[in-house]
Amino acid sequence: MSEVREILWGAGEVADVTKGTLQGDWGARSVSIDSRTMQQDALFIALKGDRFDGHDYVAQALENGAAAAMVSDVPEGVDANDSRLLRVDDTELGLQALGRAARARSAAKIVGVTGSVGKTGAKEMLRSCLSAVGRVYATQGNLNNHLGVPLSLANMPRNIDYGVFEMGMNHAGEMRQLSHWVRPHISLITTIEEAHMEFFNGIEEVADAKAEIFEGMGGEGVAVLNMDNGQYERLYGSATRQGLDRVLSFGTQEGSVCRMVQYGMEGLQSVVDAEIAGTPMAYRIGALGKHWGLISVAVLGVVDALQADLPRAAAALEHFVEPKGRGRISQLPVKGGYLRLIDDSYNASPASMRSAFEKLHMLQASSPEPTRTVAVLGDMLEMGEGARDLHVGLVPSLVNNHIDLVFAAGDLMRNMYDALPEDMRGAYDVSASQLTPKLLIELKNQDIVLVKGSHGSRMHEVVDAIEQNAHDLDNDKRKGNS
Fold first, then answer.
1. Among the listed residues 188, 177, 266, the one whose alpha carbon sits nearest the alpha carbon of residue 222
2. Residue 213: alpha-carbon gap to chain centroid
3. With contact defined as beta carbons under 8 Å apart, do 406 and 435 qualify?
4. HSE (CB half, 13 Å, CA atoms) of 105?
5. Rounded Cα distance, 389 and 23, in Å
């Protein structure tokens, strides 16, 4: 039996918040901007975009069980007197107003998470840790932009202890607005790296744009910053100028308030020795990679700053698993054994690529049986004018981590592929779909396969193909020995 969700928004409350014209009484249990994924009894907000108009789907949303629809015009096929319509001048502004109102009525402690790399993973790890100590609401998926953030806020339940919001940007000024909506008590910046560089002249500008997260904190609260990162001092200065109460550093360096002292692996788990704000701790993480160890000390620093139960939160990390497409490891049966697949297909930057190669090498080194490492790489997008050099610059990391075979897809990855030593080249093609058949022919028992690229490079298609065809892989047949 499905759980009955509480009424999140009453009709009168929404009308007051948005200054809209109400035609009837209703109660909404959620807020949606997508009729395809909308839940029963949702308030559907009909947004207008450059390539779509949500008003075209209002009739469908109402037919499918929406409690009401926020519109700026009466859509075709909908009765203008329908009691479920709420009329506003601008539906996007209405969504923003709803998000701000949800934040204003909440007594929860709010955490904002941003960074060039690792913000979704940090947000999900915070969700896991804080769920062990209280009632938590966190951004679903990566709804972290000018639409996703107010939508996430608008869906925040009334009675929670902690809210965790992921915040992203690719232009200067974007983070400032998101921060004023979220108004975090604690802001975590995972790291500053060469990612989404298309609209920035250098990494310092990226750091300044991320530091806008401090501007919505009202001159108080805590900033949690990566001391290992080259932009730490710049971010520290920004936090200080905003008058925040405290800067909490994390990293591997001595002097970090939250420090990863030692990292190890046992099976498919990470083992971490750490010191969190003066408290020695040892714990396990149900995910592999030193970057997860580093994120964990930042997350536990947030937990400590929230004055929550630190040992209980740390114990919850053993049950944390990587989000889909962000480094999740699966073991797939093939003829004669199995192969291990690392699905890191959602996003990519030079820093996250290097971290993934290191993870691949660590898995090989810890394997009790002879294995082969295979990297399947798609373009890193939004890298700006230096994109070609950034792709070629991956080669030393591939070589130093002793990756056995590299497959590549996309125009930018062609530069990297051509720069590889010849014995490391698996195959190249212009797209993920065209590369996939060449890859499947070569995979075999005991391979450890990393698939990684920016979301737009569609490397998830490669992951899907491997998962669907793993049971048919047969190295003997490929050699003509059947």
1. 188
2. 17
3. no
4. 18
5. 58
Strand-pairing partners, residue 27, are 10
Tell me: the pLDDT tens digits for 405-455?
999 999 999 999 999 999 999 999 999 999 999 999 999 999 999 999 999
State pTM to two decimals. Answer: 0.84
Q: How many CB atoms lie within 10 A of CB 392?
A: 17
Angle in degrees, 0-180, between the axes of helices 119-131 and 290-305, rounded to the nearest 10? 50
Cα separation of 68 and 66, whole Å? 5
Task: Show the tokens assigned to 481.
Answer: 């020995």
What are the strands of the beta sheet with 258-266, ordered from one edge? 136-138, 162-166, 109-114, 186-189, 222-226, 246-251, 258-266, 269-276, 279-285
| Rounded-to-integer distance, Cα 435 and Cα 458, Å | 11
Q: How far is CA 146 from the centre of its chain?
A: 16
Quote the Cα angle for 404-408-410, to 5°. Answer: 165
For residue 457, give both structure tokens. 């490079």
The contacts found for 382-389 with CB under 8 angstroms, 24 or more apart, are 382/170, 382/195, 382/196, 382/197, 382/198, 382/454, 383/194, 383/195, 383/197, 383/198, 383/412, 384/197, 384/198, 384/199, 384/200, 386/194, 386/197, 387/412, 388/412, 388/415
* Greatest Cα pair distance in the chain: 74
Cβ–Cβ < 8 Å for 146, 137: no
pLDDT tens-digit map of 359-418: 999 899 888 888 999 999 999 998 888 899 999 999 999 999 999 999 999 999 999 999
Q: Each residue of 255-290: b (16+ CB within 10 Å) or e?
A: ebbbbbbebebeeebbebebbbeeeebebbbbbbbb
Name every residue whose Cβ is closer than 8 Å to that of residue 126 and which is 6 or more positions away in sequence. Answer: 111, 113, 136, 138, 164, 188, 299, 302, 303
